[in-house]
Amino acid sequence: MIPDPMSNFYDALCVGIDWFENLNTDGFFQLSPDNSDDEMEQPTPDCQNEPPEQPEEQPPRRRPSLAAQRQRTGRMTVNDVWEYLHLPISEASKKLNVCNTVLKKICRRSGLSRWPYRKIRSYERRIAALRATMNSSYGDTRVRAEAEIERVQKELTDFCARIRI
Fold first, then answer.
1. To the nearest 10°, the Cα dihedral for 90, 93, 98, 102?
2. SS3 41
3. pLDDT in tens, 15-63
4. Burial classification of residue 126, based on how many CB atoms lie within 10 Å of its CB (0-12 exposed, 13-18 middle, 19 or more buried)
5. Claim: this prediction has a pTM higher than 0.70
6. Centroid of chain to Cα 151
7. H-assigned helices in the chain
8. Residues near 62 by beta carbon (within 8 Å), at least 6 away in sequence
9. Helix or strand or coil: residue 86?
């Protein structure tokens, strides 16, 4: 018979344990998160232990099976995802409960080579930058900014109209 090389370690761990007593985990020491590892505190009696309030857990969202997803998304067009075009594709896919690839395929079927979020966001940033120049004390600058804002808004409208067709 070969002796267990860890038997001395196990013996040291079990010092002071009464094997004939019913072991209860309530009597073990617990580390407090506020204290360092060296300081230990006794647990409070059960009547004073109130469970910490935990936020209500929502059940995990399950994606439909691939067959069900294919059937549902096979008929989808850009018009069906229109209200999500201003979001990144990952957020839009989560809200629609489909994968990113499905949204890309919908775009390609409709003649779009890319998800339009970045293009729409680019137009919005240009308009915001031009609105910031509207506070200029120079009249010419304001007039040019207003004309540029109208032009960019028209480009954005035209871009969105091409998507919606």
1. -80
2. strand
3. 665 555 555 545 544 444 544 444 444 544 444 445 556 566 666 666 5
4. middle
5. no
6. 35
7. 7-13, 66-74, 89-96, 100-109, 117-132, 139-164
8. none
9. coil
